[in-house]
Design goal:
325 residues, four-stranded mixed β-sheet
């Protein structure tokens, strides 16, 4: 094992190897790294970048329109020196613009010259390199708007008539083949469950249209509707027809059937004895025989209405007039 005295020359030699002419050695190291970087940066390389696509389509005044989907971006494989490629950022590449405003082509081809790239960069691949083009005649039509009511009213309630939609029509424009499939538009669903009796007004949007069809009218409409208590009918048979305004010798028939309409809370609790069909005989001509009189009804409770009375007329025969003296 070497002694401390023997190790000292070895350590001094190593120290001299490292620190002697340190500045020169550092300069040589920096120069070597720089030469390596230059050589490395000059090496050919490849990378992929994505470029946005901007299309110019026929104006709205044109009688035709593009119906095929366009790519939102294309993938370019580019080649060049490694240093140039590494310096390219996606934000530095301008979108590629394709002009479809006056073409009848069925396929579009991307040309490398259409892309704006730094000098020294070549395109080796475009994906997709082509895409199909489909065209259709442009048209317009007016369609009605129908309210979409979802569900049923709560028990005991009913909808009065059809909902009112304002505006009730709108104009659609777009590709004629797709436009022909739309016969009407519906609103977004309006839920009826949980609503109390009353008048309602909702501002709602319209359902989604087919591709290549647009609504040029209002995007929303106003729907009005009314909920009331549910109405039921109740018939009361064999009610005696009362005579008011005098007396008669005979009444035919003497009984009638009365049908009322109203909410269940009214019709179910109806006091049958209070409902009275009657005829007014005060205008009868005693010189004539049996005469037809309309049957009226009294005692109809609040909230109920008369639907019908059967028969609607009866024959009343007055007492004969007393002889003159």
């Amino acid at each position: 094992m070497p002694t401390r005295t023997e190790r000292r020359p070895l350590l001094e030699a190593l120290r001299g190897l490292v620190f002697d002419n340190l500045g020169l050695k550092a300069t040589a190291l920096v120069a070597a790294v720089a030469i390596f970087a230059v050589v490395r940066g000059a090496e050919p390389a490849q990378r992929a970048i994505f470029v946005d696509v901007v299309a110019v389509t026929p104006p709205a005044t044109s009688d035709r329109m593009l119906t095929s989907d366009l790519p939102a971006r294309v993938r370019l494989t580019i080649a060049g020196s490694r240093s140039i490629l590494n310096a390219i950022r996606a934000d530095d590449i301008a979108p590629v613009q394709i002009d479809l405003s006056s073409t009848d082509a069925s396929i579009y081809y991307f040309e490398p010259e259409s892309f704006s790239l730094p000098a020294g960069v070549q395109i080796t691949q475009i994906a997709p390199a082509t895409f199909p083009l489909s065209w259709a005649r442009r048209g317009s039509r007016e369609v009605s708007i129908v309210a979409a009511l979802e569900g049923r009213p709560d028990p005991g309630l009913m909808l009065v008539g059809a909902p009112d939609v304002r505006p009730s029509v709108t104009e659609l424009r777009g590709a004629a083949p797709d436009l022909s499939t739309v016969t009407r538009l519906t609103t977004e669903p309006i839920a009826l469950a949980g609503l109390a009796a009353g008048t309602y007004e909702r501002r709602v949007g319209l359902t989604r249209l087919p591709p290549h069809v647009e609504n040029v009218g209002d995007a929303t409409v106003t729907v009005s509707f009314e909920l009331v208590e549910e109405l039921v009918e109740r018939s009361i048979a064999r009610l005696d027809v009362a005579v008011v305004g005098g007396e008669v010798r005979e009444l035919r028939p003497q009984r009638a059937r009365v049908t009322l309409r109203g909410p269940p809370r009214v019709t179910d609790g109806l006091d049958v004895a209070s409902v009275v069909p009657y005829v007014d005989v005060s205008a009868l001509d005693p010189e004539r025989g049996a005469q037809s009189l309309p049957v009226r009804v009294r005692g109809i409770p609040d909230g109920a209405t008369l639907v019908r009375v059967e028969p609607s007329e009866v024959l009343a025969t007055p007492h004969p007039a007393s002889p003159h003296r």
